[in-house]
Design brief:
By secondary structure, the chain is an alpha+beta fold. It is 53% helix and 14% strand. α1 packs across α2.
Length: 81
């Protein structure tokens, strides 16, 4: 039965080539974007987890703003100096 599904799928792909290419490209871009987002989140969550007391580590950020407009100009790590 599974073999029959593959035959029908291949016939449909060959019959509607442009539509199939568009769908497969969209699927591949979506999967790759999802994988990249997952890798980024895993990297951010694992920040300094190799320390023994990693739950007690905090990251301090500093920022500055434009004195005339009051808009935030930038945020950076406190150890960037």
């Amino acid at each position: 039965m599974l073999k029959n599904y593959f035959k029908i799928t291949l016939r449909s792909l060959w019959k509607h080539k442009a539509y199939s290419i568009i769908n497969l490209l969209g699927l591949s871009f979506g999967l790759s974007a999802g994988i990249f987002i997952l890798l980024y989140v895993v990297d951010e969550v694992a920040y300094d987890n190799f320390h023994l007391k990693s739950e007690r580590i905090y990251r301090v950020n500093s920022g500055f703003s434009n004195p005339t407009t009051g808009e935030k100009e930038g945020i950076f790590d406190a150890n960037a100096w």
